Amino acid sequence: MKKVETIHSLGSIKVLADARRLEILRLLMASPATLTQLARTLERSPAWIRHHILALESAGLVEVSEIRKTKRVTEKFYRARTDALLLQEIILPKANKPMVIFSGSHDLAVDAIAAYLQNHLMLLSLPVGSLDGLVNLRHGLCQISGAHLLDESGEYNTPFVRHIFPDRGVEIITLAYRTQGLILADGNPKGLKRLADLATPGIQFVNRNPGSGTRLWLDTNLRNNKIPTEKIEGYQTVVSTHTEAAALIQSGKADVAIGLQAAAFQHGLSFIPLFEERYDLVLPREQEKTLTPLLDYLQTSGFRKSLSSLSGYNTVHSGEQVAVWPMQ
């Protein structure tokens, strides 16, 4: 099976930012070719091709695979050094304070933490959902992640962290317990009361992105309650944050979403609670020093006081460390 390799080098990414070089590389991934063959395919001169081949060679993306000599003619066949490439590079601003990328499930408390710590570190948000956030953490695309993934065992987050990080030291720290439920237009004019009401004809739903903890909870409970997704109007309408969902309902573009009580409260919407969940922060141990200002803040009464302003947040276990592996 052919493999995909990841490029983390900014220099290599710069080389491939040129669409002409990218096209040459894609041809050489398909099969080796000479300068003359590439020139014929791309309708360019061999000298033009050679200029870009040299740049690809210097970046370690292309190599000579074969040299053929026929009478007085010597032909070099070039090939790509990998079968496929995944480009991964995050470009950060220059600043005199640490830059920390937070990726995972969107959370209103994390937004408040970022504002409070802005003089000590810059917390940049990359909201992709709980599961993809852990994957980003694994691949080094962020320094800290947030998750609220409920395993079929009834345990939050730890089974997923064990699976994704079997060979790395990571920490799980509880941010808070949060209440989620039905976010509804002010006064609940459609009279929705329970999960099954999502399938009511004429009710416009707005969903969360696949891989988010909210979406995983929803899909599990729809299956358990035998509610077909095709009966839910708007099931395919996806947003990446609780605030986006609440904003659509506030604007009248949707009737209901599954989301945070705090998001409903901030937008002046009605809310029916369905469940309480544990939301954790996950970080590799090697990031402890960089994240010290954040970790210290979680232990303060000021942090708990700030959470008290968010409806539906329970701070009893905030700042507690969760064991990744069970005690032997």
Structural commentary:
Strands 5, 6, 7, 8, 9, 10, 11, 12, 13 and 14 form a ten-stranded mixed β-sheet that branches. Strands 1-4 form a two-stranded parallel sheet. The model has no long low-confidence stretch (mean pLDDT 92). The protein has 328 residues and is an alpha/beta fold. The chain has twelve helices and 14 strands.
List the helices and strands and how they pair.
Blueprint: E1 4-7, H1 10-16, H2 19-30, H3 35-42, H4 46-58, E2 62-70, E3 73-80, E4 84-87, E5 99-104, H5 108-116, E6 122-127, H6 130-138, E7 144-147, H7 158-164, E8 170-184, E9 205-208, H8 213-224, E10 238-239, H9 242-250, E11 256-260, H10 261-266, E12 270-284, H11 292-297, H12 301-308, E13 313-314, E14 321-322
Parallel strand pairs: 1-4, 5-6, 5-7, 9-10, 9-11
Antiparallel strand pairs: 2-3, 7-12, 8-11, 8-12, 8-13, 8-14
CATH topology of the largest domain: D-Maltodextrin-Binding Protein, domain 2
CATH architecture of the largest domain: 3-Layer(aba) Sandwich
* Secondary structure tally, helices: 12
Strand portion: 25-35%
Q: Tell me about the biggest sheet?
A: 10 strands, mixed
Average pLDDT taken over every residue: 92
- Structurally, the number of domains stands at 2
Separation, N- and C-terminal Cα atoms:
39 Å
Q: What order do the helices and strands follow?
A: EHHHHEEEEHEHEHEEHEHEHEHHEE
* CATH C-level of the largest domain: Alpha Beta
Roughly how many Å is the radius of gyration? 25 Å
Number of strands: 14
